[in-house]
Amino acid sequence: MPPMQANRSDPLDCRLVLYAKTPRGRQQRNQRSPDKVSRASSSLKAAAREREPWLIVASPQLQAPSATQLVNLHARRMQIELWHFGI
């Protein structure tokens, strides 16, 4: 996507990256009984969350990394934060 400005009152130059993961053929099965389909709300929410595309806002100075590289950096950062804060 082309560089743009975010926030009308105090414009901030940014680069937007839209990334949709390829589906991996998730099997909606229960862990206790693999022959049954999982209907737990947490499982359904997790499945819906993984289908949504990511919209990442990056600094315009980061023109060198490709969209895939930015997504990988963001995913690594989120793993570190989850590990550090114990979420």
UniProtKB/TrEMBL annotation:
Disordered, as annotated region: 19-48
PANTHER family per the UniProt record, alphabetical: TRANSPOSASE OF TN10
Protein's UniProt name: ISxac1 transposase
Organism the protein comes from: Xanthomonas oryzae pv. oryzae (strain KACC10331 / KXO85)
Lineage of the species this protein comes from: Bacteria, Pseudomonadati, Pseudomonadota, Gammaproteobacteria, Lysobacterales
